[in-house]
């Protein structure tokens, strides 16, 4: 198992505080690959990626999560999709490049953060929070305070280490049933967390990092979970979308443009269909096969 691209959960046994640590290198590289984002947006996507991974791990669910920033600024939309297996993908849309040192508000403008959780079974849940605070971390801390009444501390960092782009973060959260008497303990562990340096977050393994921050506390570290980039787009999903359109309409497009090209916004894969492909789609056997693909 590689040392990066892991999510670790831990628990302060005596404090009623739980924590998570995530360190991403390959997943971050995969999310940025094929997109020529300006530096400020690369950084934003790194923070959003780390935040989504940490957020997913706080929620007990089997299903999908979407964390999305929307606004009227230079960056109109930035989103990460993930699931409980920590398979993530994401994309940002922007009108023009923000300044390299732009704050979250300067990039997104007037906007909000939208969190959507879609369990495989049960009701979809959606939470919205206005963009208050200058950083994504502050914004999410406000979200937890407002929607869950849970004291939460988030540290999100992006940067370079050994020539590789890195995105990493820490989350500390009071347990839902934590008593008032643990307020000071929470302040204590979050104050220590704030002393963490970016290069420590990027380069130390979980045990060393937790020892560096909390060698005087009793910390239980659980088995890590792998974090990966999974786009999920495929030719058969494109085919499923195409057969819902009238065949004549598709053939008209091909007559006009030479082909139908479908580009994945997330990974920039391109799927091409010509007249023969379209005829094939609408034969009886293929229709059944494509329907099967939708189910799986
Ligand atoms: Zn894709």
UniProtKB/TrEMBL annotation:
Locations listed in the record: Cytoplasm
Organism (species): Motilimonas pumila
Domain of life the protein comes from: Bacteria
Gene field: hslO
Protein family: Belongs to the HSP33 family.
Protein's GO biological process: protein refolding
General function of this protein: Redox regulated molecular chaperone. Protects both thermally unfolding and oxidatively damaged proteins from irreversible aggregation. Plays an important role in the bacterial defense system toward oxidative stress.
Assigned GO CC terms: cytoplasm
Disulphide linkage map: 231-233, 264-267
PTM section of the record: Under oxidizing conditions two disulfide bonds are formed involving the reactive cysteines. Under reducing conditions zinc is bound to the reactive cysteines and the protein is inactive.
Short name of any one Pfam family annotated for the protein: HSP33
This protein's name: 33 kDa chaperonin
MF term (GO), any: unfolded protein binding
Xref: InterPro entries: Heat_shock_Hsp33, Heat_shock_Hsp33_C, Heat_shock_Hsp33_N, Hsp33_helix_hairpin_bin_dom_sf
Keyword annotations from UniProtKB, A to Z: Chaperone, Cytoplasm, Disulfide bond, Redox-active center, Zinc
Source lineage: Bacteria, Pseudomonadati, Pseudomonadota, Gammaproteobacteria, Alteromonadales
């Amino acid at each position: 198992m590689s040392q990066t691209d892991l999510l670790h959960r831990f628990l302060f046994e005596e404090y009623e505080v739980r924590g998570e640590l995530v360190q991403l290198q390959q997943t971050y590289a995969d999310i940025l690959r094929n997109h020529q984002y300006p530096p400020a947006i690369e950084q934003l996507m790194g923070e959003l990626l780390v935040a989504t991974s940490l957020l997913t791990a706080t929620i007990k669910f089997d299903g999908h999560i979407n964390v999305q920033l929307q606004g009227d600024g230079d960056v109109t939309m930035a989103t990460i999709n993930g699931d409980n297996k920590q398979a993530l993908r994401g994309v940002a849309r922007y009108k023009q490049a923000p300044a390299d040192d732009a704050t979250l508000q300067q990039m997104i403008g007037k906007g909000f953060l939208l969190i959507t959780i879609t369990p495989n079974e049960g009701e979809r849940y959606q939470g919205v929070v206005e963009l208050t605070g200058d950083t994504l971390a502050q914004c999410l801390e406000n979200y937890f305070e407002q929607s869950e009444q849970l004291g939460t501390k988030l540290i999100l960092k992006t940067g370079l280490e050994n020539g590789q782009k890195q995105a990493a973060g820490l989350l500390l959260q009071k347990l839902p049933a934590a008593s008032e008497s643990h307020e000071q303990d929470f302040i204590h562990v979050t104050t220590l967390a704030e002393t963490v340096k970016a290069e420590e977050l990027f380069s130390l393994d979980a045990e060393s990092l937790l020892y560096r921050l909390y060698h005087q506390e009793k910390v239980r570290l659980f088995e890590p979970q792998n974090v990966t980039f999974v786009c999920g787009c495929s030719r058969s999903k494109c085919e499923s979308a195409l057969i819902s359109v009238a065949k004549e309409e598709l053939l008209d497009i091909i007559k006009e443009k030479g082909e139908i090209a479908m580009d994945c916004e997330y990974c920039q894969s391109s799927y091409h269909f010509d007249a023969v492909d379209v005829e094939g789609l609408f034969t009886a056997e293929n229709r059944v096969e494509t329907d099967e693909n939708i189910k799986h």
